[in-house]
Hints:
There is one protein chain. By secondary structure, the chain is an alpha+beta fold. Helix content is 29%, strand content 23%. It has one domain (8-195). The chain is globular and about 45 Å long. The model is unreliable at 4-15 and 188-196 (pLDDT under 50).
Amino acid sequence: MILAPTSVQAVTSFRTAPLLALTLLHPWPFAITRLGKNIENRSWAPPPWLIGRLIAIHGGAVPGGMKLEETIASAQWIATELMRSGRAKPYLTPAQWTWLRAQQRTLTVGDMITPGIVAIARVTGCVTSSDNPWFSGPFGWTLEDVTPIDAVPCRGKQKLWIPEPRTEVQVAAAYLRATQQPAPWRGNEDGARGLG
């Protein structure tokens, strides 16, 4: 199954809608911002109206206990997958590959724990099978136009959620610093609430 925009309205709706955020476990926000992870695995498909929209990528709370062990195992998988052949992977940009090679000896699991809103990305579709190594399913949200930003600290929520107005202002400022472009989503006047 592949979801894609069904109308021009679906593609452009992010310009008039509030920014939505999605909280990820670590180290996946880091992998999206630095390592070319272009699929976010979920147990549910994105709503059709989300296709084509920008979302905020949020790193959840700093893990402890079993969650920290899972983070370490995931970080070890990332290191093995990315550095196995010594050649750039097709999902890495030249800048990401250069950065990774420069950091490979000093990069730690702690570096891969990035709490707060750390990027803006466009949801472009959903796949239920893929040979992309980032895919584990059952639903793979495909991401493009990933823009790393300076981390904006805030608490996350499950599913899709709307950041509080002050957080959205900070995210918009970080996006402006990163892109030299104003944020292409409208302000959030009605506060934070979770969306299914």
